[in-house]
Design a protein that fits this description.
By secondary structure, this protein is an alpha/beta fold. Helix content is about 55%, strand content about 10%. It has a single domain (about 5-205), classed as P-loop containing nucleotide triphosphate hydrolases (Rossmann fold). Helix 4 (about 70-80) packs parallel to helix 8. It starts with a strand and ends with a helix. Bound molecules: cytidine-5'-diphosphate (CDP). Cytidine-5'-diphosphate binds near residues 38, 73, 80 and 107. Cytidine-5'-diphosphate (CDP) binds near residues 11, 16, 34 and 107.
Length: about 210
């Protein structure tokens, strides 16, 4: 059967960790769609035209180990505002979402544009301060020399661009369940997501 879990939300809200954990728990495939835009942004920084980069993306481009930098995050958000770049990436994401055995996709527009008929939609948020602190810890832990203030300013700039763009703006789907993780540790957030997905799976006829 196909069963899609769409997990959207702003930067560093916890989507990635929740998505990986629930995919492993329920035996679903997982796609971090942010990597598609990061890999496209990375190629743009390397000198390629964004549309050409998006069209030429290969599976292995998503495994590059230089995608989780602040520069690439900024470039990703810039290419992600381009209609033609988004259009070039739609088919791959839709096919992934509807693969046999079920899938979890996390991003900004999964519940609204990529898979509006997903069986479960979550919109994961957290306060700006909590998100900046999480991302600052991640980046510091991987050797990036950044201040908390820089990280906060970057997140706010990127969220503003992602929410204001004409092409598939970041917005909760009307039928998304909101999960505010500001006051939750990750285990609690994952537990809540699991409960929501379990209910949807039961409604879909069990597995
Ligand atoms: O990990 P983080 O939440 O910081 O970002 P990400 O999910 O890797 O996404 C990087 C950028 O890609 C975002 O700021 C968006 O501009 C863009 N993106 C998008 O437009 N649509 C998606 N489905 C996923 C990411």
């Amino acid at each position: 059967m196909s069963f899609t879990v769409a997990i959207d939300g702003p930067a560093a809200a916890g989507k990635g960790t929740i998505s990986k954990a629930v995919a492993a728990h329920f035996g679903l495939a997982h796609l971090d769609t942010g990597l598609l835009y990061r890999a496209t942004g990375r190629k743009m920084l390397d000198g390629m035209a964004p549309l050409e980069a998006a069209r030429a993306l290969l599976r292995e481009d998503l495994d590059r180990n230089d995608l989780r930098t602040p520069d690439v995050a900024r470039a990703a958000s810039r290419v992600a505002a381009m209609h033609d770049v988004r259009a070039a990436l739609v088919d791959f994401q839709r096919a992934f979402a509807r693969r046999q055995g079920g899938a979890v996709l996390d991003g900004r527009d999964i519940g609204t544009v990529i898979c509006p008929d997903a069986e479960v939609k979550l919109f994961v948020t957290a306060s700006d301060a909590v998100r900046a602190d999480r991302r600052w810890r991640e980046l510091s832990g991987t050797g990036h020399d950044v201040t908390l203030e820089q990280v906060l300013a970057d997140l706010r700039e990127r969220d503003a661009r992602d929410a204001a763009r004409a092409a598939a703006p970041m917005v909760p789907a009307d039928d998304a369940v909101r999960l505010d993780t500001s006051d939750m540790d990750i285990a609690t957030a994952v537990e809540q997501a699991k409960q929501i997905i379990t209910r949807a799976l039961e409604a879909a006829g069990g597995r």
